[in-house]
Write a structure and sequence with these properties.
heterotrimer, A alpha+beta (380), B alpha/beta (331), C alpha/beta (332), A: 380 residues, alpha+beta, seven-stranded mixed β-sheet, 8 helices, C: 332 residues, alpha/beta, five-stranded mixed β-sheet
Chain lengths: 380, 331, 332
Amino acid sequence: MPSLGADMESGTLVEWLVQPGAQVNRGDLVAVVETQKGAIDVEIFESGTITEILVEEGEEVPVGTPLAIVNGAHTEVATPQVAAAEPAATPKAAPASSPHRRFGEQRLRISPAARRLALRENVNLRDIHGSGPDAAITLADVELAIKAIKAPVDQKRTDSSAAMSEAIAAAMARSKREIPHYYLGHEIDMNSVMTWLERENTSRSVADRLVYAALLLKAVALAVKQVPEMNGFWTGGNFQPSDNIHVGVAIALRGGGLVAPAIHDTDRSSVEGIMGSLRDLVGRARSGRLRSSEVSDATITVTNLGEQSIEQVFGVIYPPQVALVGFGALVDRPRVENGGIFVRPTVFASLSADHRASVGHRGAQFLAEIDRLLQEPEKL
Amino acid sequence: MTVSDTRSTSKTDRVELLRQMLRIRRFEEKCAELYSGSKIRGFLHLYIGEEAIAAGIMQHLSPVDAIVATYREHGHALARGIPMDRLMAEMYGKATGVSGGRGGSMHIFDADTNFYGGNAIVGGGLPLAVGIALADKLRGEPAVTACFFGEGAVAEGEFHESANLASLWKLPIVFFCENNLYAMGTALERSEAQTDLVTKARSYSIEAEAVDGMDVSAISGAAACAIEHARSGRGPYFLELQTYRFRAHSMYDPELYRDRREVEEWRSEHDPLDSLISTMRADDELSDDRLQQIEEQIAAEIDRAVQFAEESAWEPVETLERHVYAEGAAS
Amino acid sequence: MTATATRQLTYREAVREGIRDALQRDKRVFLMGEDVGRYGGCFAVSMGLLDEFGPERIRDTPLSESAFVGAGIGAAMRGMRPIVEIMTVNFSLLALDQIVNNAATILHMSGGQFNVPLVIRMSTGGGRQLAAQHSHSLEGWYGHIPGIKVVVPATFEDARGMLWTALEDPNPVLIFEPTVLYPVTGELDGNAGPVDIESARIRRSGADLSLITYGSSLAKTLEAADELADAGIDAEVIDLRSLRPLDDATVIESVARTHHAVIVDEGWRTGSISAEISARIMEQAFYELDAPVERVCSVEVPVPYPKHLEDAALPSVRKIVAASRKVLNVNG
């Protein structure tokens, strides 16, 4: 079957113009071939006798198939060799859909540059919350996480302090620039807590004694369940509530600087467990051995300035979180109950919340819920 | 309308013209065979039936003259003196091809003979030819540009723009219009309201004539006049060569658009080679032995050309990106 | 030349100086195009040159874009150094066959035997209320074609200096002159002369993001960079100058420093040169990116006539600033 065009792959022999035994001369028309473009005469480039017909009329054969034998020699009518350069295999069909664009799948958004840095510095990306477009983790986010982890252990204390200050400054500046804060305050009667603690601690060794701060943390964690708008992240223009409750605890470092590592699953931890975590975290934070997941996992932060005898604190939300609860010092205050005046131990609780994620009414419910929970310390 | 001034061509001239026409025909026949055998690929357009035109015209061009041709340009290339072996190697796409294998059948270029290419865009070569002629005029060169194209190109805007520009600027160019009656499969009367091409050319104030494109003597005479006209500074010339292609437009063409009897009639009654041979025989200028000898010489030349092409190397793939931008500064 | 005192002149005068310089330097050079002679050029670029150099070298042509562009190609192949002027890029489509099928291919098809040392100049882009058949930015299209070079002078120095270098280049070079710039006045160094036509230039250094642009968008982009600076964002501005070849090295080096890229291109977004640059950044600097590449292109509509609609269709300072803020995720 002669090749009559670069785009011809096969042809149908529709008519033989010669029969076996016929004398043919170079240039004679010997057959008619039907192609995709129509019928084309086939000429012969040899002279001699047709001794055998190899392809019958009506047969479709690929280009290069011998059609007949001339002079007994196996000299076909038009002897094409399929060009070696033609690709042997047809390319596989392209996949129906692009593998790169899958929707509805929770895939971490992270910029390529941030991913490379995180890989190099061994930072767990799952622990970082993105500040980039579409809430992607950016280079700056990873750098911040690295600084937060490394700063305390850095041999060059001044450098690390500077780096940490810079990181805190950046986060706080961003918070104040982007987050529309609102603030609520509420005085909580701590009498039940302190009474319960006193009783509880009598049966404990000094080392195992509980402090009221642990109860405050637990109360916050449980209150979040009733007001989930406080727990999660503002990313990509939306509030994304967190399924987990990891309360971050602001810890001031000795050389200056601040970290707010998370107590994982605070709501499911016992008060003893929280106590243990608190001790552990403070110790490790001050010796610079925090895990990166602890540094960046917090879903809400608690700051407690009670040690400084400060009565009220209104904190700055740690982005991309949406709420921060502040507790002041435990102080005795006169409170009116049932028409009488009593001196009670109290703590002033404040809420700094992101108005994009919640409204003041819900914030009030949240503080009230913390109060309610602290009135039943045995249930915490 | 035919030119009556047919200068007498001498005996040696006629033998040489015969030899040239036979070279072209046998070369083209070999190309058809090699194409069927997949040695030559792409589009292949054969000049069989039109050989008298290239042979009759090229003899009147000087080495400095420029040629712009079409995709059916093997005949022009051979008649211009491009070596057959390098031409055949180009058909194969080999590195030794006249265009380095980059062009193939439709893009024969040769700087040595001022052959500015087979152009595969119908009408695309005409503006180029006008520019070459403009350069020659600006530089005061005595050269003429021979621009070949088919009658199909006359429907293109580029023909009209180029004819106007060449005439407006009185450029030394000859438009050789090879009218083989079919633009691929579209007959002239099916595509042109005015089928008299000479009239079209004259509308641009261009000297224009038509000549029997199957009569090499007539072509030779008309071409000599046309080229002399352009060389003498009298502006462009348009010469229509009325011819017929005996083969299909390209290899993959079942010729649905024309009657087989029409083709047969042209082949049997107007074959430019047959008529030249019978004239020469009648004038006792050509013996059977002489013809046989010429055929053998041509067959040997073709065998050598095929062998050269077969044995030539492919360009290494590493050089794929060569010749996209010029290497080194312009001259 | 005397000292390096700067001079005031218009963009069109800078182009004219380049043409005059070329005509004086090389007798093979001639200018050819519609109304370049007696009329003085559609945009008055060649005003006065006919008197100075005569009709053979300042050659008026009929309205036959294909023929005179093709004639330029033929003349270049035959030893001349033609400058062919096409009034606007839209009209160049009438000569597309000659540019794409001949100028760009002949060197290759001829196995390196024939080169085409031709320069084609044309105006491009919108901003003058010339509507949909005189305002498009198709230089990116031409950038698709191997075998030609595509340059866009956005500064007075380039308007003056790219032409001679293009004429000395052995390849066909297309120079796109933004229509909007012709009447603009600026300063040119007294010693201004030929400049290279292959490299990009950093027109403003910055650390926060790379603004990549060319042509008439350069001025808008520089203005946007000033505005961003006021907001504390330090933008780098790259003028591509050449769309083919593209100076990848300068672009990639910048993005590797800033990790953020915005491409400003007056062409339409789909299939544009901005798409090409974005792809190259992805190919060569993926791991340097800190945010997806942003593009500011023309709205996908034929450029409309009324000013407010034309302004809305083209890249603007406001859009460039917004895109920059978006890649940095900084609210304005």
